[in-house]
Amino acid sequence: MILTQDNLKEFAVEAYINPHCLGIDEFKLDFIKVLRVNRSVEQYMDHKDEGSAVRLLLNTFIGLLNVFDTKSLVRMVCFKSKEEYLPVVMAVFEFLSVLPRSIPEVDLSKYTIDEDLFSKLKAL
User: How many domains does the chain have?
Assistant: First the structure.
């Protein structure tokens, strides 16, 4: 299934793997985090010289990986990310060793990872 705005939520439901989920409200809270990845990247970009910004961004992605299937999460996040934020997103996924060579929704070969962020992640 190729992701679209119309089927994103359905795709997320199928990719949801939180064994401790207590109901639809908890899923919605986790799904909103996927939709707000751009906000997390913006916060990192605004405060990238602060060590806490790197850790906060990494924690956001780790939290999402704990409740969504890895391959599906990468596709959803890349699909929802603003084009200018993809190098940051890709750097985090590369650091976590989950960045695929390609996904159907975005031509990842057009982008390079944010090397500055990747170095900061490796230094943690």
Answer: 1
Q: What phi, psi does 24 have (nearest 5°)?
A: -60, -35
Distance CA(16)–CA(12), nearest Å, equals 6
Is there a domain that residue 12 lies in? no
User: What gap in Å lies between CA 33 and CA 40, rounded to an integer?
Assistant: 9
Q: Is residue 74 in some structural domain?
A: yes
Q: Cα angle at 5 between 111 and 41, to 5 degrees?
A: 45
Nearest to residue 45, comparing CAs of 98, 117, 123, 96? 117
Task: Note whether residue 56 is domain-resident.
Answer: yes
Partners of 68 in the β-ladder: 16
CA atoms of 91 and 64, how far apart (whole Å): 16
Predicted confidence (pLDDT) per residue in 59-111, tens digit: 999 999 999 999 999 999 999 999 999 999 999 999 999 999 999 999 999 99
Q: Which domain holds residue 49?
A: 22-122
